[in-house]
Write a structure and sequence with these properties.
Distance between the termini: 59 Å
Shape: flat
CATH topology: Methane Monooxygenase Hydroxylase, Chain G, domain 1
Oligomer: single chain
Helix content: 55-70%
CATH superfamily: NADH:ubiquinone/plastoquinone oxidoreductase, chain 3
Strand content: under 5%
CATH architecture: Up-down Bundle
CATH class: Mainly Alpha
Largest sheet: none
Order of helices and strands: HHHH
């Protein structure tokens, strides 16, 4: 195994063991006295009106997926910003095309009514 990978392997082992050790230690140290009140969904003093596994409208999921898609697309701007001077005007043109496609996607979603809550 090349010596260059040793620090990565050590970091990976620590990254896995650290949370596992802390969770096990917390389970051993903490007091465990479950009661009917503590096992309820909410401890604010108000009884739960219904089951928390209610149905959501499809519109909620559409907006959530659109948010994730557009959010992930804007993450692609970060590498471009880091290498901005290296790319020059060609990079500016690439980002203009990318943002143009992104804006067209927003307009399409808006016209389809996917961004409206009502």
């Amino acid at each position: 195994m090349p010596s260059g990978y040793l620090p990565i392997f050590i970091f990976l082992v620590i990254a896995i063991l650290f949370p596992v050790i802390l969770i096990v230690a917390a389970k051993l140290i903490r007091p465990s006295a479950p009661s009917l009140t503590k096992l309820e969904a909410y401890e604010c003093g108000i009884k739960a009106a219904s089951d928390s596994r209610g149905r959501y409208t499809v519109r909620f999921f559409i907006i959530a997926i659109l948010f994730v898609i557009f959010d992930v697309e804007t993450i692609f701007l970060f590498p471009w910003a880091v290498r901005y001077k290296l790319f020059g005007w060609f990079g500016v043109a690439e980002v203009a095309v990318f943002l143009g496609i992104l804006v067209v996607g927003y307009i399409w979603a808006y016209k389809k009514g996917a961004l409206e809550w009502v």
